[in-house]
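Researcher: Re-running this chain for the archive, since the previous output was lost when a drive failed. Same request as before.
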Amino acid sequence: MSFSAPGSPPPPQPQPGLPPYGAAPHPAPHPAPPQAGGPLPGQPYPAQGQYPRPPYPYPPQLVDVLRSPQGLATALTVVLSVTAAVNLFSAGANVYARSLMTDLIADRDTVSEGSLDLSDVMTGAAGSLQLLTVLGTAALFITWFHRVRVNGEIFRRDGFTRTRGWAIGGWFVPIGNLFIPYQTALEIWAASTQQAPDGSYRRVSTAPVTAWWALWVLAAISDRVFSVLYARAETPETLRSASSVGIVSDLLTVAAAVLAIVFVRRLTALQNTKAAQGPNAAL
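Model: Regenerated structure tokens:
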């Protein structure tokens, strides 16, 4: 059964009890014993060609286990908070730059070289800090995202339209990264939601997912526009325009980081509850 988009999802089938974190949902089969006539354990195999079909044992089958995303979620909360603070600083740097450009347009003599140098230092520092936080946050977020995706497949194996590798690869597909991670997040959210105590379908609002994703996309687009405008700016007027877009981009990023924290903590809580209580909610 394929996963349906939120709004009209079919009621999932009752699931058996779920194992705790770290326990395999199904025992792996024991490897098949060697065929008759094979060497005893610890003895080398005879030369090639002595046996028509070498009695090699079958390799053990790998199984998935639930792994708690709590530690990664806590680290993400810290990193996303730092990201919000860095972008607040960047917004302040853009406000200062815009003010200087406005004064420079009105009367060049009112703006000192020291003020312009300070603006350049603030803008450069903000850009460097943003790059560091983006790299760190992206690596940690994708690691957490893949973990909750694997857990989601254990919770509900028929709830996903793409393989788990897309939880990582979907972020790097041009154009596709504007919707593939969002679809995956919705599927993880649905798979991590407990059913009602009687086993019937129970809907949990996906507003945290949608709000976070909408602001993240807007922040990413506005940041790209700011980068292009700032690189091409050569006059006080164009620098002022670029700074205005930068302020909007920074504030959108702050909001997206806050909503990302809400999304991460809420989804982690859903998975912790389902792992502890089972597929049906407690009375």
